[in-house]
Write a structure and sequence with these properties.
heterodimer, A: mainly alpha, 75% helix, globular, B: five-stranded mixed sheet, two-stranded antiparallel sheet, 7 strands, 48% helix
Chain lengths: 522, 153
């Protein structure tokens, strides 16, 4: 009984902390939606984990360092919470309520079906172990313990500290408490995607899009594993959805939330650094291009508050990362380049893991390309594809003796982190077919598809060419069979690339004076 | 005009068909994923093993060094060795196994002679997880009985 009550109280505290953060950020936008609950869970988890970190760092293991500030924020302005409640009630119509109930049912079924299974090696070896360490207030000692290099001491601490939070409030000291945290991340991701879609497309498409994520086999498989991939997927999707909205509407609060959630992604798992860098680059590009400066000072303060604990962790432990060599050109195994796209492509085309998600992303890319306004569309296309491309490139630094086993073992989880964004992107594209066909330039969709395929083949030809050159220079292992096969594949890839480009140039372009939508012509 | 009509139809029908196909394949794959998760659940930890570890945590000082010996370095035993590390923290836990595949796992020691390892690693507690020590040679052997423990004081 105490465990159940503790879990409910733990969830309530995380949501209260998150909603308080959200309310402070959303001063220029008061329209609540179900996605707010997803964002609140991510922000609340970050806030609770940072408070837990400092308490554990200073040797305390009690809920008060978290409870005191959260209760202070809640009781400092009770009227504000009543106002928020009213705004929530007014914004929810009957159908949204039905959709929310259906979502809750989907989550409950998933949780019940996967609950009895084991929490995974990482659940015990990394996050579970660290949760126990935090509860003893011995974070510092664990970082310099040479007998536990397998626990990835240098990793960010959001997930273990949230597990520790649930263990603390529920009074249990096993990994079962961590499941509550994981179910929270799973539910928050579904709510975020549903609410995010609901703000732009119809209710039917929002439900279909959320189901497309909720029924993704990999998402189901990993949803209650105690890994950090669903958690980082939530933060990354939240960041992308808000930055996309900032580009489309220009509201300051969206930029702030996008930045905050990117920082949360970095505090969740190392791959979050890629998300943070991409969001930062996009932010900078927009600032330079359209002279639209976002809220730089609050973003800098939030980054400092959330990432200082991680900096402390990294500077306190002397662990060399086990799976990858340091990123330097002399450490790069460039001869792996031609094989990485093949392995990655094979994984992404696996119907048993992804159903049709990634083929649909490939189809949606050119459809989205010509839509106006350009900036938000371009951003959505980039955010759905760039992180995967960057993360696949890191395998050239893999230290695994059989490096392609490393790709096979870990790429599914890397793709899982991008899946919510991919589902959001695909649904946004498929839900508005007339906009992409009827938009100016919409008639040359065939041309764009051929060009995109041509570019993909071109990239593969370049990688194959680089491999051939490395073999000829003696930098990659070679024999006559490999050389011949590689040269043959290169010729074939170049031929296909040229054919695609030629076909693209011959394909009919838009009629003079701009395209007319099919509905107008009919 | 015919081309436009066909395109209009494709544009209207394609998204629904694509998403519908995705949902059908996804639902089937999800059921398989859940089966796979349940199959993985057969393995690792029994209440008896957890109880044994908690008993060691109560009986020994936090400075004790613990050796967990398992038949092999498979995921099943990796999980149990990691659980021992977690439950027994801050005691140092060394993991050893009899299997030759152990040499491929960076954090597991291949055990030929238990007594030699206990001496060299200054071990205070040895957990025999489905293993036993050969009385004459001191070599580690596989034993499918419940885990046992030896505490050196």
């Amino acid at each position: 009984m105490r465990a159940v009550l503790g879990a409910i109280a733990g969830l309530a505290v995380i949501l209260a902390a998150g909603l308080a953060c959200l309310d402070r950020c959303r001063k220029d936008d008061r329209s609540p939606g179900l996605d707010d609950l997803g964002v609140a869970y991510a922000l609340g988890a970050a806030a609770v984990s940072v408070l837990m970190f400092w308490a554990a760092w200073l040797g305390h293991a009690s809920p008060w360092p978290v409870l005191a500030p959260v209760l202070l924020v809640v009781f400092a302005s009770p009227r504000r919470w009543i106002e928020l409640g009213r705004a929530w009630r007014a914004s929810i119509d009957r159908w949204t309520l039905v959709a929310a109930l259906a979502l809750a049912l989907l989550m409950a079924v998933n949780v019940v079906l996967t609950r009895p299974s084991w929490p995974g090696v990482d659940g015990v070896a990394i996050w579970g172990f660290k949760a126990r360490v935090a509860l003893r207030g011995e974070i510092r000692a664990s970082l310099v313990d040479p007998s536990r290099p397998w626990s990835h001491p240098e990793y960010p601490w959001l997930v273990p500290l949230i597990e520790a939070w649930f263990e603390l409030v529920s009074g249990t000291r096993t990994e079962s408490a961590g499941r509550v945290a994981q179910m929270g991340f799973h539910a928050a991701t579904l709510l975020l995607v549903f609410g995010g879609l609901r703000r732009s497309v119809s209710l039917a498409w929002s439900i279909a899009g959320t189901l497309a994520l909720g029924l993704l086999p990999s998402f189901v498989y990993w949803s209650t594993f105690e890994d950090a991939d669903v958690a980082i997927g939530l933060a990354w999707a939240g960041s992308v959805i808000h930055l996309h909205r900032w580009l489309a509407r220009g509201a300051r609060s969206d930029a702030l939330l996008a930045a905050l959630l990117a920082v949360v992604a970095a505090w969740t798992k190392r791959e979050g650094v890629v998300a943070l860098a991409l969001q930062g680059a996009c932010f900078l590009a927009v600032a330079v291009h359209s002279r639209r400066i976002g809220p730089v000072l609050p973003i800098a303060i939030a980054t400092l508050v959330v990432l200082t604990p991680w900096w402390l962790v990294i500077s306190s432990c002397d662990v060399v990362p086990r799976d990858f060599l340091p990123v330097r050109i002399e450490n790069a195994h460039l001869d792996r380049l031609p094989w990485i796209p093949i392995l990655v492509g094979r994984e992404l085309l696996s119907v048993t893991h992804w159903a049709l998600l990634w083929p649909l992303v490939a189809v949606a890319l050119p459809l989205r390309w010509k839509e106006r306004p350009l900036l938000p569309r371009l951003y959505l296309v980039t955010s759905a594809t760039a992180p995967l491309a960057i993360l696949s490139g890191t395998y050239v630094f893999s230290t695994w003796p059989i490096w392609y086993e490393h790709v096979r073992n870990s790429f599914e989880r890397l793709a899982l982190q991008q899946a919510p964004v991919a589902v959001f992107f695909v649904t946004m594209t498929l839900a508005a077919p007339r906009s992409f066909m009827g938009a100016p330039g919409g008639r040359d969709v065939k041309k764009v598809i051929l060009l995109v395929l041509g570019v993909l083949c071109g990239v593969y030809s370049l990688a194959q060419g680089a491999y051939l050159v490395l073999m000829l220079m003696g930098r990659a292992e070679s024999n006559s069979t490999r050389l011949t096969a590689s040269a043959g594949i290169l010729c074939l890839a170049l031929g296909v690339t040229l054919t695609l480009f030629k076909a693209a140039l011959r394909a009919p372009g838009p009629p003079p004076g701009g395209a007319v939508g099919p509905s107008n012509k009919a | 005009m015919l081309g436009v009509t066909r395109r209009t139809r494709i544009v209207t029908v394609f998204p629904a068909v694509a998403l519908g196909a995705h949902l059908v394949l996804g639902a089937r794959g999800s059921v398989e994923a859940i089966h796979e998760r349940h199959a993985a659940a057969d393995a690792p930890v029994t209440p008896a093993y957890r109880e044994l570890l908690e008993g060691i945590a109560v009986e020994t000082s936090t400075a004790a060094r613990v050796l967990v010996l398992t038949p092999d370095a498979s995921t099943r035993y990796l999980y149990r060795a990691f659980l021992a590390s977690s439950v027994l923290f801050p005691r140092t836990v060394v993991w050893g196994a009899v299997d030759p595949s152990t040499s491929e796992v960076a954090w597991s020691v291949r055990v030929a002679d238990v007594r030699a390892l206990v001496a060299s690693e200054r071990i205070d507690v040895t957990v025999f997880d489905h293993t036993r020590e050969e009385p004459t040679s001191g070599a580690l052997a596989i034993d499918k009985k419940a885990p046992g423990v030896r505490i050196v004081r």
